[in-house]
Amino acid sequence: MTITNQLADNSPDHEDQSLALRARSGDHQALEDLVQRHQTWIYNIAIRMLHHPQDAEDATQEILIKVLTRLSSFEGRSSFRTWLYRIVVNHVLNMKRGQVEVQHASIDFASYGAALDDTPDLELADLKATSAETDLLVTEEMLSCTLGMLLCLDREQRLTFILGAIFEVGDTVAAEVLEITPDNFRQRLARARRDLRNFMNDKCGLVNQANPCRCAKKTRGFIEAGYVDPENLLFVRERIGEVREAAPKVNEALSTLDEKCAEIFRGHPFYKAPDLAPMLRRLVARTHITT
After folding, report:
1. Is the CB of residue 63 less than 8 Å from the CB of residue 95?
2. How confident is the model over 192-211, as a mean pLDDT?
3. Virtual CA dihedral for 153, 159, 164, 165, nearest 10 degrees?
4. Using CA atoms, how far apart are residues 101 and 96, in angstroms rounded to an integer?
5. Residue boundaries of the structural domains of the chain
């Protein structure tokens, strides 16, 4: 599945509006249909904010519960998407720290760069893995490492970069969701792009071929440090086919450093969300959601 953003889509969300109003009136099937339409996008925002799939699943569940309990306040006078994604934005900016954030509470670009420098360059031959298995491990390392770079941004910058650079939401829509002015959003996005650009251009071999850091060289080091577990791959598994082949060659195809950096993250998988409709179904059975 490619990254094509609902938020960036300016078409009328008549189906969302209809489903929301029916769900608000007690139509449980309409509620499940709403969840199916939006849970994947919520999950993909959450995983880029939190790094760990389990934390992202927990956050997605918490967000959907908020949507359920607040649905009676949606009157259909404005876009359902905007209403929903305001809930998403407020939640991910204020949620408790995920396990990776807790483990690396003081992470910043300087310390992350130092950690990469300290990770030895090792050959993969000693892993005694097949070529396909090695490719999976290298891709897992690449995804884990670049998601770690996102954690070096504070939450506000991180969310701005996710919306504006990765999911390519326009400044008008993003500003409305974030409840700031378009000019403020552009300024935030420029700062986030600058900070990632400066780091990746200085460190990342995917962006700048002059840099010695290579995913294949760092994979064994990531495994030995516990950042990649060959027995429990977090980011690839069956999703390996969704990673764009162009990601490692991005510097050959793109003209600006900002776009080189953003394309690395747009090349990440668009993860399939866990189906949270059964959880909501059980909750609905105990909760009154109509006005």
Report:
1. no
2. 95
3. 40
4. 9
5. 14-284
